[in-house]
Amino acid sequence: MDISLEMLVFLFSAMLIVGALATKFSTKLGLPALVLFLLIGMGLNQFIFFENVHLTQLIGIMALIIILFEGGTQTKWENVRPVIGAAGSLATLGVLLTTVITGVAAMYILNLSLLEGMLFGAIVGSTDAAAVFSVLGNKNIKSKLTSTLEAESGSNDPMAVFLTVALIELIQVPDASIWLAIGSFFVQMGLGLLIGLLLGKLTVLLINNINLDTSSLYPALAIGMATATYFISDFLGGSGLLAVYVMAVFVGNSDLMYRFSILRFNEGFAWMMQIVMFILLGLLVFPSQLPSVFWQGVLLTLILMFIARPIAVFVSMLFMKYNVKDKLFISWAGLKGAVPIVLATYPIIADIENSDLIFNAVFFVVLISALVQGSTLSWLATKLGLTGGKNDPSKPTMELINLGNTEAEIMEVRMTPRSAALNRTLIDLELPDETLVIGIIRNKQLITPTGTSVIQDDDILYVLSNKRNREKAKRVLLGKKENKPPKKPLATE
Q1: Tens of pLDDT, residues 250-300
Q2: Model confidence pLDDT, tens digit, residues 183-222
Q3: Taking the alpha carbons of 45, 48, 52, 56 in that order, is the dihedral positive or negative?
Q4: What gap in Å lies between CA 337 and CA 34, rounded to an integer?
């Protein structure tokens, strides 16, 4: 049916409203919101004919950039650093093993060629960042496991993209060199990592040193830099998605002006992009085509969940310091979501034979994975005794801001057990001139500081200071404690 401009505006508003309300029901049901978004898209499919795969892929890639940037800025490097080896192994060897095992199964179950089966395996081989971030975000699961899964899901998309593109090229050009493709992979990863670090540092310098007319422009600047990071990395032959995630982790773990505004804007924007993307992807699914691939899709999903993913996890983490329960949980947390469906559009655009069959089978994998695994993650963590630990403190209601066009700023400083200022009164601190602690958050309560206020572990201090005194003030508050030996008495004659 032809759609007028007014109808498009109405549908867009309806998508956002219904999508936002759907998140409330999905939380109560314990399901990832993407399941409901997909079903909403399929429902709209009965009234709207939509088959613009190119537009869907473009919106999907933009959504992945926003989702990875939001997830990366929320990732704490101090939690990820100890598990970077395990996450890296899962993101590379784990994806490769999942691709091979699932690909061989798909070759027989879907009656595909070996390369087409491997293509299907590559498309569903990665753990989806959007699904993992949304499902684990409010669960009280041990930090080591959540950090591993978040780092894996944020960094394994490049491997899935590389395998998908490489396999499509091999299908189209059978004489293409596999070794050249392998060399290209390492170049893409290296460039993506380097460009992500460089542009992450540039983003922090730009945000902290430019004085925009309004604070509402800083989130737009951050999103613009994330998008530019993807484009520059992709243009130079690097992995754009890896570059965005690395850049986001760097930005999120740096001293950042207007951090609260940027993070909250990113969170809302990421949700909006998820809503739009999954509904559009649902529109591409024609329910009339699904029955013909129903049992194949279910069987492949079971193989992926109970055979391919567990084998990939246990092999790629063979020498890691994780026990069996940890590995079982990580195996079950291999959620599928946005990336597989976006990657499933690649064979369609490339006009690969059986591309529609692959797309519909991928849809079943994503739907069942999100529905079954996403809704049982919390239950499984409880059964395995993997819950507990210290929850992150509530998000602060203040932020590091630049006070107009002046040289003054307010910065947020979180105390740790190693902070030099711990257990000292404010009056005893040798803070630089023109520096004042104006607020303390302790146990979710705002405390008005006085000279006799004693700084405690996990306090969040808000410090009014001059820009040039920022680093000195941080050294006084966060520098390592000094354990000076007592002075020897002077010798008396």
Answers
A1: 998 887 877 878 888 888 888 788 777 777 777 887 777 778 888 999 999
A2: 888 898 899 999 999 999 999 999 888 877 777 888 999 9
A3: negative
A4: 7
Nearest alpha-carbon partner for 443 in 388, 404, 390, 406: 390
pLDDT digits (tens, 9 = 90+) for 83-122: 889 989 999 999 999 999 999 999 999 999 999 999 999 9
Are 414 and 459 in contact by the 8 Å Cβ rule? The answer is: yes
Asked whether the beta carbons of 112 and 106 are under 8 A apart, the reply is yes
Angstrom distance (rounded) from CA 479 to CA 430: 12
Under 8 Å between Cβ of 409 and 469: no
Largest CA distance in the chain: 106
Nearest to 145 by CA among 382, 322, 374: 322
**pLDDT above 70: residue 486:** no
Structure tokens at 407: 């040289």
Strand-pairing partners, residue 465, are 409
SS in 3 state form for 12-43? HHHHHHHHHHHHHHHHHHCCCHHHHHHHHHHH
Residue 462 pairs with which residues in a beta bridge?
412, 439
Please give the Cα distance from 42 to 48 (Å, whole number): 10
307 vs 172: CA distance, rounded Å: 30
Q: Which residues pair with 461 in a beta bridge?
A: 413, 440
Structure tokens at 392: 């992150």
